[in-house]
Amino acid sequence: MAATNLRERRWARFWSRYGFVIAVLTPILLWFCIFSFGPILYALGASFTNVHTLDPSLAKFTGLKNYINLLDDRRFMMSMSNVFKFVLTKGVLNILISLGLALLLERLRRGRNLYLFFIFMPVVISQVAVAMLFLWLYDPRLGLINYLLSLVEIPPQSFIRSTAQAIYSVAVADVWKTYGYAAVIFLAGLLDIPQDYYEAAKVDGATRLQTLWRVTIPLLKNALILVLVLIVIDGVQHFTMVQVMTGGGPADSTLMPSLLVYNYGLGANNYRMGYACAVSFLMFVVILTVTVLQLRLFRSLYD
Amino acid sequence: MTEVSRRPGGMGSDSWIQAREYLVSLATHCILAFSAFIAFGAMFWMVLASFKSASEIIAKPPTFLPQAPTVASYILILSEQAFDRYFLNSIVVALPSVLLILFTSSIAGFVFAKFEFPAKELIFTIILSTLMVPPAVTLLPLFRLVSNLGWADTYQALIIPVCVSAFGIFLLRQFMEGLPSELLDAGRIDGASNWWIYRHIVLPLSVSALSALAIFSFLANWDSYLWPLVIVYDENMRTLPLGLAHLLGWSSRPRYDLFLTGAVITVVPVVVFYSFFQSRFVRGVTLTGLKY
Predict the structure, then answer these.
(1) Are B19 and B142 members of one domain?
(2) DSSP three-state, residue A267
(3) A277 and which of A47, A61, A75, A83 could share a cystine (Cβ 3.0–4.6 Å)?
(4) ipTM confidence
(5) pLDDT tens-digit profile of B159-185?
(6) Minimal Cα–Cα distance from A1 to chain B, Å?
(7) pTM
(8) Same domain, B109 and B20
(9) Structural domain count, chain B
(10) Å between B35 CA and nearest CA of chain A
């Protein structure tokens, strides 16, 4: 009798302490198991097999074969070099433009919000719509950009129809959509810098460029890390605009790793789920490595 | 005397500095206005172009204002391509997704911020680590899972796999940790349940974080392309981005009139929404971004 009473009391205490936590976290963790952890582990397992996307019954364990084959896969190597060009172009342009604009916006006393309103607007637009807009702007014969070039006597370019220019053209379209986001982050970082630092630099006779390089940029460290990390993560995963604008072409010159996952895993005559999952895991490893390297680099530079 | 004799020189350098300041500020405004024009002009031109005829859009030299304004491309796109249906689908998918994300993120954020329980940090870290995994990794397993559930071409296929957000949980936890615990304790002493405290104290105090999360999860959902592309086959289940992308294959020649009109239909509701809540959008970036 006393024992059951004690057990009941303990149970009641346990429930009053953790009941709410359990009631909330059980469904949420269940969701993560089904729609996140589960699929991630499944993909990892599948990457060591030759499983077919639509018919998994014949799957055989093949060890590291998929990963070894990928190193010989011309399309995979192409997608890696493309994504490198894409991220580099996007990163350099995005940071130069957004940091420049943020520095200008910071100096303004009035009208800052009005400019921000326009500069941020492309951020809210759907990527597919941006892709449509740039398909039109880039059209070699009918597009606005070649018309404007013809006004200054520059011969028409083929942009996304040429293997040499396509990846950079898509990167520029992506920069148009995203620089407003980075500009807002940089502006917030700039406005957080106390004015005293600038006055101290002025007293020491620092030029504008010295102040920018020695005071502003180091104090903007957190915003810079954030923007760089986001650019790499977004860039390596990029899918939508490339898929809509070029579909990976011409001649695989804009093929990206996530496009390859889509093509290998779900493309007609392919359905090589195991192989596609290996591509996706290599992507993951690249993102992880570059992000960790970036954080390390920044720490060693400024601490 | 000394004052006066110093003055002319001082005057001269003062006005020189003033003139320079003026020039610098003029240049600043010019550059900013140009960048605003690049950002906004292309979009504005797109809206104008949607009211041009198919032949005027590709005319040389390009026209700025529509010479003979027409809604022909809107009529064509609505009659031939069911963009009204796509629009509806996008809404029917986006609204429940965002509401569910807000609910799950806030209640889980509350639990992680204000409760102590075994393995709390471990569970939180595991949830957070899924943010590092690119969506391409889970794409194929999710495709198999959702197809096996028989959910292909259904709304739940587009809602359920995105209705919990690791980032949202993280964001709300960060935010709610800043809420004073005394407020919650006061509620507890009065005998209020955890649910009541969540509903009447925690939620109202978290509006700024919730609205930032609402804005960005809505944008992500409205923009979502890869997942619908994989799981939707039925024309009637297409969302706006899918419908828009399908215009590409509709005719052998690029129909820029339809591309741009479809893009305008996709973009305008978001831009109108943005125009009303601009400061919240911009504040949302710093709230969600800088606290990473």
Answers:
(1) no
(2) coil
(3) A47
(4) 0.88
(5) 999 999 999 999 999 999 988 888 888
(6) 30
(7) 0.88
(8) no
(9) 2
(10) 7
